[in-house]
Amino acid sequence: MTDPLTPVAAQFEAYNRHDLPAFLACFAEDFRSYRMPAETPTLVGKAALAAFYAEHRFNNPALRAELLGRTVVGRRVFDHERIHGLGDQPLESMAAFEVADDGLIRAAWFYFAGQP
Fold it and tell me: Where does the record place the SnoaL-like domain (predicted)?
């Protein structure tokens, strides 16, 4: 199995560069994203991920993430982040990434401060 930290670190760096091809290269074709506490995915598939980030994230020049902490537990990587550029104030979040044996991110769960 590939080190789960590798694709998570790569997608984080690509996110801050707004480099969509490099960002997408870190994710599996059947990727699923959850915005907690949702029980169903908010994004399904790499194509949906590409469209969302092209239209709602990487078109924002102020967007950047600050890594506050990172923990690896088995195939999961937990990033505590502060996201700038989505509102007047930075948004604090916890992202949990599940990395498959092929070294691609298969799923991610996002928790945002201030949400139940």
Answer: 8-106
Query: Minimal CA–CA distance to 105: which of 51, 35, 30?
Result: 30
* Tokens describing residue 7: 């694709």
How many C-beta neighbours within 10 Å does residue 109 have? 19
- The backbone torsions φ and ψ at residue 8, rounded to the nearest 5 degrees and listed phi first, read -70, -45
The per-residue pLDDT for range 50-105, each reduced to its tens digit, is 999 999 999 999 999 999 999 999 999 999 999 999 989 999 999 999 999 999 99
Kindly list the domain boundaries of the chain, sorted by start residue: 5-112
CATH class of 5-112: alpha beta
Q: Which tokens sit at 49? A: 């991920």
